[in-house]
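input
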Amino acid sequence: MRKQTNNLINEKSPYLLQHAYNPVDWYPWGEQAFTKAKIEDKPIFLSIGYSTCHWCHVMERESFEDAEVADVLNQHFVAIKVDREERPDIDHIYMTVCQAMTGQGGWPLTVIMTGDKKPFFAGTYFPKNSKWGRPGLIELLLAVEEKWRTERELLYQSSQKITFALQEKGKQELGGELNSTTSTLAFEQLLEDFDPEYGGFAFSPKFPTPHNLMFLLRYWKRTGEERALRMVEKTLHSMRQGGIYDQLGYGFSRYSVDEKWLIPHFEKMLYDNALLVYTYLEAYQCTGKSEYAKTVKEVLHYIKEKMTSKEGAFYSAEDADSQGEEGKFYVWQQDEIMDILGYNDGRVFCSFYNVTASGNFEGTTNVLNSIGQNLASCALDFSMTREEVDETLEKCRKKLYQEREKRIAPYKDDKILTAWNGLLIAACAKASAVLAEEEYLQMAQKALTFIEDKLFQEDGRLLARYRAGEAAYPAYLDDYAFLIWGLLELAEATLDKEYIVKAEKLSEEMERLFADQEGGGYYFTGSDGEEILLRPKELYDGAMPSGNSVAALSLLRLAGLAKKEKWEKKAREMLDSFSLAVGKYPRAYTFFMLSLEWTLFPSAQLAFLGEKENNILQEMIKLAQKQFQPGRVLFYEETDKNPTAYLCENYTCLPPVTTIEQFKTLLHLVN
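output
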């Protein structure tokens, strides 16, 4: 017998399709739902989440699959489901409301509002019935329904006040100045929040927030402050050893629920892995430590194997849950491992990855981690050489990985988001340059080709999402800014001017569609997008950097690469526009601080002349690409001259060099 479906059945979003068979009469966001609410005189019940969200799954199982809850919703409300990854504009607005009303946010996001989209109630997860100090959803819905009948004017007044407060909050204060003192304040604030024992910032839950580390690397490079580098290294090493890193199949989970990075929230997001690849690459550039390069190679192997479509674009996420249980796919019993590996190999593996009979996760299961372990001590414990331990562990890893592949895998969200693909294009392009790996360049180029073929309309308008043959939603600021970043990384990885031209064209479109001509910076939605209560402008760098933060740094780089002053002028205007907000608490804007750091470094252009295939020129380029030199851009001009390199710094050009030894000396002069 075919199950009954609701209005989500024709959607492309995996998250919406997960709810298409609920007894709740869900509608996608659109005029049909709002018209129905007005005709039937009902409030809107808005639920926002995403396909790999654990608590979204819990709320669906407890409430949205439940006939009693569905009866209340269908009788008294018009229910709308939104995928926050497809419609971040809607999510931004109502999450701001939730945070203002409750002091916290998260997903699933639950909002109740009038038919004209004005909210009067907001919260996150609600169980069906009251428990854990949380009101039950049925209780909440019936209370709202009664107020809607008997005290509706109070609800309208409340929605008006909330909307007004939201619009006032969105107004930008101007003034202030950003300078090196601001950077020092950001460093001191990060230092205060730093966990010296396990790395990372604050305690639990712990999110990777790679842009904190990217800022600290630049601060260290410019000032020589060793504590900044130590914070980065401690964090990257601890994360790589922790359970937040998939020790068998690679890739990072979204966050750790504890301060040790031991127990992850098991979902894997494309954007986290892209930003972490980029950060580990920069750490490798700064230190030369092979463990960072090894981590990059492992994560990109995971991306290629598990998160890449046959056309070369990158999928969005993998779920935390498998067979309805969080982490079930990833955890192990000790005796299970011993049976698979045998006694000798099993005891080495269990020792190194902290596997015990008592377990470390929900009873006697284990999340694999190597916290506190190293090859030397393991070799000593088992009277082996380090090489023998390393070989044994790798042999065991492959065997357990193959065994794990037989399990029911977590759900994969296979939609393709332009913004997140832009981040991974940037990471792959940088990896190809720093590690001299052609494979990573091909990954970046294939993803870009997919976006160019599938996600641009005929009029040149970029779109935000592709899935199942459909491209949809006018792209947001993040889509433009992150894709420009990817193009600039490709430009420096290949020294091909084609990517500079594309980046500049996209920047022109970003300026036309998103620029705030009065307040500076860029709105999140385009001038041709849907306006809901207000037009948001984001700067805060949360799990991902904001579009404004990425745009500012990209425009500074573009100014150097395209040799056009107008882009630097725009970026510096952004620094001025946001200086008051950033200056108060720069630790919340660490990616935006990368632009300030760029301006504090001496501007440098490294130009190469000659035939690109020339071995000496190729060696010079590779040497330059391996260096961590913020504030520097690379150029190439094809000539029939002998290979030559020029360094121009602070508007002064040094004499050209033509040999590898001369070039190595020249590189040391670049900050």
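quick obs: The chain has 26 helices and 19 strands.
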